[in-house]
Amino acid sequence: MPIATTNPTTGIVERTFDAIDEAEVERRIAAAAAAVAPLTASTFAERAGWMRAAADLIEADGDELARLITVEIGRPIAQSRAEVGKCARGMRFYAEHAESFLAPEWLSDPSSVGASAAGTRYEPIGVVLAVMPWNYPFWQALRFAAPALMAGNVGLLKHASNVPQAALYLDTLFERAGFPAGSFASLLIPASGVERVMRDPRIAAATLTGSEPAGRSLAAIAGSEIKHVVLELGGSDPFVVMPSADVAAAAAVAVRARTQNSGQSCIAAKRFIVHADVHDEFLAAFSERMAALSVGDPLDEATDVGPLATESGRDELADLVDDARQQGADIAVGGTRPDRPGWFYPPTVISGVTPAMRLYAEEAFGPVATVFRVADAAEAVAVANATTFGLSSAVWTNDSAEEDHFVRALAAGGVFVNGMTASYPELPFGGVKASGVGRELSAAGIREFCNLKTVWKS
């Protein structure tokens, strides 16, 4: 993929960028390594001041950044503004809480280990490589950068090639805010250049948000180098609706859960698993609401769903739907590629999906929802877990026993009851199975890239 801004609304390439050469890659890695000592030596208070200054810059540039997001990936502008605001909040969260999250922890009775004092402390590990996707071009990068920098680590960002302007903005953000030179930098390199960086001995660890194949590739390199990784990969999240639920409310939230970022979110609900007693009611309400969404220019405030970010992504989504249609699935809404410029695909609702169809197991990265009819809670769990993914999940029920059952039985990194999956700085985020390893956000996220050092004193 060329390093370029291609407007998904028009399909027109607006700006292209040259990849940096090997000499510049080396210069940036060396600058990052040189920044480790001054950043480690800084205090939490100093880093918090710089992080708040970076959040201030993000907010001051908010309108410009929201438009940039929309032009580079096609997201509706109101949602782009929300991403910018979420970034600033997340940065301030870590500025406030990093010191307490990483405070030393001492045994109350060290004599149990034959010591006068014993416990643990968290220390930064050095330079961390972040390989980030395009779908939340600022939030994905900053939810790594904020905790990493507040812990005293240095960050290098290899961003997706279709959001180069976002990468270049982040390249200078933290130095503008006061962090030592080299504390954070972007590498405009193709995906083929990641292995060279990852194998550099000055790189201590890596984090990747993206596809399962990309995660497997990075993990294999990290394993051979004995380097720690955090991986947040794909998801095909279930959204379960039981008879005790408020079905109308569930259908309304289901639309937002499926179409956030025009459906291009790892944690978007994708498989709607509905008890037979309320299946028809839910399907009708859900389909009506999906059909009513406004699809169009993402810079228009009234637009609900914009184009998909890439032509290949749109084509892959259309192929999934066509495969299901050819094998007998019922298309309640949408399902036809529009004849217009840009990479649009309509909100689509499909039922009657069987294991023979690709949509049964593959992630639909766009505004396409599959609805399943199940007989009871046991079948709902079986269908929900019948995938290699396990990122997050949602369950709608007003029965406390059912709630407890689903919270325990769903194989996922999160369960949201009577709501839709979202990420919050206060809560850990990540998945199980092929959806990844490790956690981002909360105290768990900042501790991922720290050395947990044991201290024992006689």
TrEMBL record:
Q: Residue limits of the Aldehyde dehydrogenase domain? A: 3-455
Which InterPro entries does the entry link to? Ald_DH/histidinol_DH, Ald_DH_C, Ald_DH_N, Aldehyde_DH_dom, GABD/Sad-like
Swiss-Prot/TrEMBL keywords:
NADP, Oxidoreductase
Molecular function GO terms recorded: succinate-semialdehyde dehydrogenase (NAD+) activity
Domain of life, per lineage: Bacteria
Please give the Pfam families that the UniProt record associates with this protein: Aldedh
- NCBIfam families found in the cross-reference section: PRK09406.1 (NF006915)
> What's this protein's family per the entry?
Belongs to the aldehyde dehydrogenase family.
List the protein's name. NADP-dependent succinic semialdehyde dehydrogenase
